[in-house]
Each structure stands twice: as C-alpha cells, then as structure tokens.
UniProtKB/TrEMBL annotation:
The lineage of its organism: Bacteria, Bacillati, Bacillota, Bacilli, Bacillales. Pfam families: ABC_tran. This is ABC transporter. SMART domains: AAA. Transmembrane segments: none annotated. GO terms for molecular function: ATP binding; ATP hydrolysis activity. PROSITE patterns: ABC_TRANSPORTER_1, ABC_TRANSPORTER_2. It comes from the Bacteria. It comes from Paenibacillus darwinianus.
C-alpha cells in the first residue's frame, strides 16, 4: 500500500494574536511519492504548514495522519524519517563536512553509505569539496547542498523542501532539480517544495498547492 499523508482542519495562531489565525481549517492529502509545488504570497504560512507536517511545530487544532495512524501515535523520529524537512536556512552541525554527512546514519545507527554520499555530493557539483573541512566554513550555497545530501542519505519517502534553491546559482539549482527528479524516478521519493519561482514549480512538480487567503487551492501540471 502506498504511504499517505492527510491533514484535516489544521489551524495555527501566532503568539500574541490568538484572535486572528495565520490559517484555519486547512485540509489536504498526498501520497508520499507525489511531487507537489507549494506556492503562494509571502507570509501566508507555507513554511509554518510544512514544519507542522514535519512535526517540528504543533497546530492549535487539527489532525495529521500518516498511513492511517494519527501523529500522536507516532514516534516523531520515525515520522521524520519518512517525511524529512529541509530548511531554507541550512543548519550545519559542528564538525567537518563528513561529520555532517554521517549525521543521519549516526542518528539512526545505520551504516554510512560513503559511496552514495560521494555520488550525491558530485551530482550537486561538490566532488572536489574536502570532507575534512569545518562545515561552518562552507559558503551558504554549499551548506544548502550538504544539508540536502544529509537529508537524502536518510532515504525519506517524502522531502519537505523550504525554498531550498533560493540562495543557489542557476547551475546548482538545475543540479538540485535533476537530482530530485532522478530520486523520484528511481525510488519514488516525493516532495512538497515551497518555491516562489513559478517556472521552477512547473518544471519539477506534478501537483500544485497554492496557499492564499487562508485556503489551499489544488491544481495539476500537464507534464509532471
Ligand atoms: N513562531 C512564530 N512567532 C511569531 N510569528 C511567526 C512565527 N512563525 C511564523 N510567524 C509569522 O507567520 C507568518 C507566516 O510565516 P511563514 O514563514 O510560515 O510564511 P511563508 O508563507 O512561508 O512566507 P515566505 O513565502 O515569505 O517564506 C509570518 O508573518 C511570520 O513572521
């Protein structure tokens, strides 16, 4: 059976303004293999919803269900292994590039797949990067790509991508799009990808969610 995420009647208020929710009553569903672009005006709550779907924030009301089981019955770590969030502000753990690449296997006590890590780094234009380098010394765009590789090494079923190419140049952006397309084709890995680039949305996704005026409008692209 295909993995399925559902969210029902999600409401989120912000601290200091309980009377006026950021959004209320948002519902939707996705197979974890779906490729979804998530667009909409700034400040409507796209990142907040994505973080709620990753169990990194809590809604004020509403239910999240993965494979028929409500979120409260899940171990949050197991949930996040299936649905992994990649932030717009890449966060490097202290230590070297290799320490960062090994983080997923260290956390989940699985063997480190050095060959896959090398392949992913190379596919994002980082074949020459010295893995002994202090990760804090990487450029913003390099951190973003290492952060994506670190997450892909977890082999999640779906990626929750928060404007991950906003700080990348065209070449790196194309490489990220190509890599995620090949992961989708080879392993069925899906994503919900927040982007402000509507051309990118049309290139990468089969489905479209637009969050505006407190509602999600759903659409489909002709050529996924
Ligand atoms: N923890 C918080 N405390 C206070 N305000 C918050 C918090 N989290 C989000 N907000 C506010 O909620 C609004 C929505 O933020 P969010 O980042 O989810 O929107 P977005 O649609 O992803 O925006 P953008 O497209 O500009 O990235 C913003 O005004 C933000 O400042």
């Amino acid at each position: 059976m295909e993995s399925m995420l559902q969210f029902n009647q999600i409401t989120r208020t912000l601290p200091g303004n309980p009377a006026r929710p950021l959004f209320s009553g948002l519902s939707g569903e996705a197979r974890l293999s779906d490729t979804i672009s998530f667009t909409g005006p700034s400040g409507t709550g796209k990142s907040t919803l994505l973080r709620i779907l990753a169990l990194l924030e809590s809604p004020d009301e509403g239910r999240l269900i993965l494979n028929g089981r409500p979120a409260r019955e899940w171990d949050a770590r197991q949930w996040r292994m299936k649905l992994s969030y990649v932030s717009q502000q890449p966060f490097m753990l202290s230590g070297t590039v290799e320490d960062n690449l090994r983080a997923a296997s260290a956390l989940h006590r699985t063997p480190f797949d050095r060959e896959l890590a090398s392949r992913l780094m190379a596919s994002l234009g980082m074949a020459e990067t010295d893995w002994r380098k202090n990760a804090q010394r990487l450029s913003g765009g390099e951190k973003q790509r290492v952060s994506l590789v670190r997450t892909l090494l977890l082999r999640p079923e779906m990626l929750l991508l928060d404007e991950i190419t906003a700080s990348l140049d065209d070449t790196s952006t194309e490489a990220v799009e190509r890599l995620l397309r090949s992961f989708h084709e080879a392993e069925g890995t899906g994503f919900i990808w927040i982007t402000h680039d509507l051309e990118q949305a049309g290139r990468v996704a089969g489905r479209s969610w637009v969050l505006a005026e407190g509602r999600i409008t759903e659409g489909e692209y002709a050529c996924p």
